[in-house]
Amino acid sequence: MISKKILMLLAILFGMSITVQAQIETEPEDEVDEEDEIVVIDQSGNEEIIEFPEAMTYDLDSLLNEYMAKTYLTSGDCNMRNENPHYPEEVYIERLSRMPTVMEMAHNNVVQQFIDRYASRLRGTIAYCLGAGNFYMPIFEEALETYQIPLELKYLPVIESALNPKAVSRVGAAGLWQFMPATGRQYNLQMNSLVDERRDPIKASYAAAHLLSDLYKVFGDWNLVIAAYNCGPGNVSKAIQRSGGSKDYWQIYPYLPRETRGYVPAFIAANYMMTYYSLHNICPMSSRLPAQTDTVMVTKKIHLEQIAKVLNVDIEMLRALNPMYRHDIIPGNTEPYALRLPLSDVNRYIENEDAICNYKANELLTNRTIVEVNDYTPTYYHKSKRSYKKGRKGRIGRHSKARRGGKKAATRGKARASKGKNKAKGRKSSRRRRR
Questions:
Q1: What's the Cα-to-Cα distance from 381 to each of 266, 374, 378, 384, 390, rounded to whole Å?
Q2: pLDDT tens digits, residue range 321-343?
Q3: What is the pTM for the complete model shown?
Q4: Where in the sequence numbering do the catalytic residues fall?
Q5: Which segments in the chain show pLDDT lower than 70?
């Protein structure tokens, strides 16, 4: 019998299934680029089109333009030939089986298609992810360990965001772990006009580990967990029902949304490539880890430019270390917020906090706290409503019966008036005769 705790968890997770499912909405089929699809031939010889994870279609140049990449990543020098060697199928099977993972890393035609794509067209993206991983993998591993999650799930953000903390999907999922707004709020990630904690690598990683832990309590299988992470637990439960109750991802595969069919294979292939990249002549980008950082709690409203100018630090570096601040404003006057700085600048910030707050505050923080209302009362000249205005071309104004009824009405009005005068004259003459 399912415990009350599990039932409550199911209700919460199924409630988010609609918002999580939004991550897999796609453009109309005729607008999807062929580069964003994989074509698989099934056992019956039929073609099946599987969508590629959106993050793996990001332009490599835009990824390399991020501050962390420009500043701390350089092209690797491995003296390797830039070509992808091909191996027999049994070699891939054997390599996957040797990976030290709790999760099942099975091989099939779909997984092979993703490996081939990563090792050929996406070699540059894999090289970038290997270099950027030096920044983010320690954060992911710490969060996953906290919730006792298999560490191979640290490669989930590779297919979710290509390790870009500022990534935003076409349906509004954001950050390294691509949280939708409603799901983020359920896991205590704050979102408002100034702050989006889905982009905070640390907070989002702990929220993602919490969510994965909750999903495992429901499904008890890690492949189903990451499928539910992509399309929502409701869709996975429906697929289980339609398959006759099977809890094997590969058995419920035909009943899942199209992108989710490729999601687990893409994840397995990402684990393979991040492990065996050198055997495919992929040279990881060399990384120089940024200086050690620490956080200070900010209790005043401060603009990042104020910090950059007073401390003489690069504002792009501040943005890279604090990607959750959407408009460079830390609303510390609302509640305390963490500001991440290079370790050497933390004490300098504390010593100069007043100078920072006062630097060009009127120019950078333009929202006013008190506003005076203009109490000047203008006087207007109002004509009497009974006045007759002469319109253009000498026509009678709007209060005239003639204008309301046109020429005919005016003629009828004159006829009535003359008729009334005649009647009045008749009444006067009859009175005279009576006298």
A1: 75, 21, 10, 10, 18
A2: 999 999 999 999 999 999 999 99
A3: 0.79
A4: 160
A5: 1-35, 41-45, 381-435
